[in-house]
Design brief:
Layout lengths: L8 H10 L1 E4 L5 H21 L18 H7 L1 H11 L3 H7 L2 H10 L5 E3 L5 E5 L13 H5 L5 E7 L11 E3 L10 E2 L15 E2 L2 H7 L2 E2 L8 E5 L4 E2 L9 E10 L3 H5 L12 H4 L4 E2 L1
Length: 281
């Protein structure tokens, strides 16, 4: 692998125009496969520990999550155990801090002092038909803080098809700047924290921009501006959507610097206490 990745000028311009950039095959298979293998092993350990009557097929890269759906049908709580465990996989943490991520960050944010958001990286599991944890239309900044000048790195662990609910993106919406949010605006029972936020005048906003939902595969990298409006797609498949997400941010950006790069809900901080001017009850 090259020690430095150079985006073309056209790619950089596209990112600033659309607010996102898709880089097919950015990560190598040997970076992704060990993560999937360890996830398979973790699922097996949970099944064994709780003596669940679940028969699994031998490990295959394309079906690394074999048995997971059966686990959450038995106990949704055990799904949360797996969710918390997989974000600690060494191969995943190596990917988060891959030097090429910093190369990309510096090209898209020239002059930035790069940081990786603590509490801003993990392996997300979008379960079928589960609305409580499906992210509505949002910008990344309210849920992460750290810095307005930030980027989301998103990459899947399996082949994404429309039924799995790929990320929905409002192309170019980052030009809106930071948008006000309705606090406790969720219409889904049980949603809390960042999940309960809703953008003010959301319907009108959605109408102004074109919608894109990239179907990606393992190794592809989707990069999104912290101000880009996006949401989790609706998973109507019979399998969970597994994706890796991590956030890089700029220490030098004035707003982030003014609040000492504090985290948001995952760090126990209510966004409204940092930006009351952007929150509407």
């Amino acid at each position: 692998m090259n020690s430095q990745v150079l985006l073309t000028q056209a790619q950089i311009q596209q990112f600033h125009k659309d607010g996102y950039l898709l880089l097919p095959g950015f990560y190598e298979p040997q970076q992704i496969e060990p993560i999937c293998r360890t996830i398979y092993d973790i699922i097996g350990l949970v099944i064994a520990e709780h003596q669940l009557d679940i028969t699994r097929k031998p490990y295959q890269f394309a079906h690394f999550d074999d048995g997971y759906i059966e686990v959450i049908k038995h106990s949704r709580r055990l799904g949360s155990v797996i969710y918390d465990a997989v974000k600690q996989v060494p191969g995943f943490l190596k990917l988060v801090a891959d030097s090429r991520n910093e190369d990309i960050f510096q090209q898209l944010r020239p002059g930035a002092i790069a940081g990786i958001a603590a509490g801003g990286f993990g392996i997300r599991i979008n379960n079928p038909y589960e609305e409580q944890y499906r992210a509505a239309w949002h910008q990344e900044y309210p849920g992460q803080l750290r810095s307005v000048n930030g980027l989301v790195f998103w990459t899947p662990l399996l082949q994404i098809v429309p039924e799995l609910g790929p990320v929905d993106i409002l192309s170019g919406s980052q030009i809106e700047g930071l948008l006000p949010v309705l606090k406790n605006g969720s219409d889904v029972s049980g949603q809390t924290g960042g999940y309960a936020l809703r953008l003010k005048n959301e319907e009108q906003l959605v109408e102004r921009y074109s919608l894109t939902s990239p179907c990606t595969q393992p190794g592809d990298l989707l990069i999104m501006d912290f101000k880009l409006v996006h949401r989790s797609g609706k998973n109507i498949a019979q399998r969970a959507l597994w994706s890796m997400q991590f956030r890089w941010f700029d220490y030098a950006e004035p707003i982030g610097r003014s609040h000492h790069w504090i985290g948001s809900y995952a760090s126990g901080v209510d966004f409204s206490t940092i930006h009351p001017e952007l929150c509407i009850e």
